[in-house]
Amino acid sequence: MGLDEDALEYHRTDPPGKIEISTTKPTNTQRDLSLAYSPGVAAPCTEIDEDPTDAYQYTAKGNLVGVVSNGSAVLGLGDIGAQASKPVMEGKGVLFKRFADIDVFDIELDEEDPHKFVEAIKMMEPTFGGVNLEDIKAPGCFTIEERLREEIDIPVFHDDQHGTAIISGAALINAADIAGKSLEELEVVFSGAGASAIASARFYESLGVRKENITMCDSSGIITEARAEEGDVNEYKRQFARDLPEGGLADAMEGADVFVGLSIGGIVSQEMVRSMADDPIIFAMANPDPEIGYEEAKEARDDTVIMATGRSDYPNQVNNVLGFPFIFRGALDVRATEINEEMKVACAEALADLARQDVPDAVVKAYGDEPIQYGPDYIIPKPVDPRVLFRVAPAIAEAAMESGAARTELDLEAYEEELEARLGKSREMMRVVLNKAKSDPKTVALAEGENEKMIRAAYQIQEQGIALPILIGDESDIRQTAANLGLDFDPQVADPSVGDYEEYADRLHELRSRKGITRSEAGELIERDTNYFGSVMVEQGDADALLTGLSHHYPSALRPPLQVIGTDEDVDYAAGVYMLTFKNRVIFVADATVNQDPDEEVLAEVTKQTGKLARRFNIEPRAALLSYSNFGSVDNEATRRPRRAASMLQDDPEADFPVDGEMQADTAVVEDILEGTYGFSELEDPANVLVFPNLESGNIGYKLLQRLGGADAIGPMLVGMDEPVHVLQRGDEVKDIVNLAGVAVVDAQKE
């Protein structure tokens, strides 16, 4: 099937459309229903009647946006009417929810008269925290937005105007920087004089472009003062009339620094591009076909052509989804009365700044694993970059507070953490650990320091103040890679091949001489194997923690730390633990990486160490030792081991948290089973530490929970070592390295 057929099938699959309403509170019992509706619902109604602002406390108003259209200017389809526009408005709701966790009612009004349209929206003001106007033709859209901003007390935003303006404005900031040109001196030409073009031109002024340097062209050519005096242009176009001779787009583009296309495809030739100033900036944003094709524009000249389009299949996509979800997120969270110019500028500047930062691996993978780095082909962030939420929304909130548009004040540092939590429980849990790490950073040695991911992770670890990273490897290679990546930091490097590390070789020989390693072999291992080097570095106290394993099999990466550092003096066995985060639950799974067939003593030790780890995440542990048997329902050696381990732990004063077993997995995690059938259990609430009977079941279990249960997995985290060591999985992303560095620092703080 083609794209159209696929899209039709996508939309009609049961249930039809793309959105639904779901409940946010329990509705399982008679009491639940009496709270949700009659008679309990009268209480919040009374409170809101006495103080209307309580609607934000007792209803969904504060997280609800109305996406409103009359279908008069839908995408490239034109005036198709209100009902036919509904799939687009539902789609807008999907984007609001997906990128900023904002709920939406889409409202399609069969009304062309701007004044009646305004009156309809005004009557719905009590319902919403904000209104997103969409796909309304000019010049009526200007009238509608202007009146609503004056007459209602919640944020109103016409995305077709301001979304394109803000995102292309962010691109313009960076394009000018790369081209070495100042915004004040740019000569800017617009092709198109509709709502988005006029809003963009106005916004560029707010960024610093001078109005006298903006030339706007409509279908009749350059908008001149002569045409304005003749009444040939409307009042909105008239503000950009210039005292220039009449001419066409080709005349306007000659010598221009910037071309902004918001018109129709194919109207710009290579010759017109060649007539522009050095290193031209071309934003050809007509959809689906730009004013000039990407390759065509690039090939027109020998100097740097910085090109952006509205398409996803070329670099620098000007996509409004980078703006409106996060603008409304920040505006809603401070209960803003409007979305003003200061908030729009803050959005553009935040996006421009984000494009200059290192790009997460997940974003790179989403775009074909091609390198993404600030430059002519990357001047604005990618729409799927999760950092946009907690960079842009706080910038919007701060600008609203500073400009007087906010009705409530936020602690911006705490607010950023709340936003991260919206992206998933795993981010919320990691924020606990990373904040602890930042309170007292430690030195973390990164074996495999020449690896690009390790270098990028070291940059982020240092930039965020999580730890003091030491990259182990060839210093010249590391510094060259950092420079090639455009990372502005001076890494601390330990180069085994050039430094004086004879004492490390002596120490390794001392530790392993009775295991068959000669002094010469110890020297070779220190010089050539960064795992041994890093292990001795930590063992000698020259670093507080070690991360390794990014390019090694787990057992081979674990072997050097076990040989050199070993387990804690009161611990005989290390173990690998994964933290699995679900929407409303966190579970620690052990052992998933180390002990193949543990006896009861190992199981008990693993349980204690995993409980300690849970507390580092501010989770009070409740441990279940798992089996296919419930409390003796099956009796054999396999079921006795977890049963004996549970008994040992219950008698161990160091195990100061609830432990029970053996029990089946559903018994451990389902409250009704635990309380109903096994009310005698030591666990009063479902377990959050699950200890599997062997490595095989642990590894299978965590992967099934991750893949089928939709859990995010953090780890493996190594517990039981004498010094903090964590072994990464091959192929881990930079964020995984950063997260485990945070865990290692908290481990070191405990040491």
Automatic annotation (TrEMBL):
Gene3D superfamilies: 3.40.50.10950, Isocitrate/Isopropylmalate dehydrogenase-like, Malic enzyme, N-terminal domain, NAD(P)-binding Rossmann-like Domain. Residues 161-401 form the Malic enzyme NAD-binding domain. SUPFAM superfamilies: Aminoacid dehydrogenase-like, N-terminal domain, Isocitrate/Isopropylmalate dehydrogenase-like, NAD(P)-binding Rossmann-fold domains. Residues 16-149 form the Malic enzyme N-terminal domain. Keywords: Multifunctional enzyme, Oxidoreductase. Pfam families: malic, Malic_M, PTA_PTB. In the C-terminal section; belongs to the phosphate acetyltransferase and butyryltransferase family. This is NADP-dependent malic enzyme. It comes from Haloterrigena gelatinilytica. The lineage of its organism: Archaea, Methanobacteriati, Methanobacteriota, Stenosarchaea group, Halobacteria.
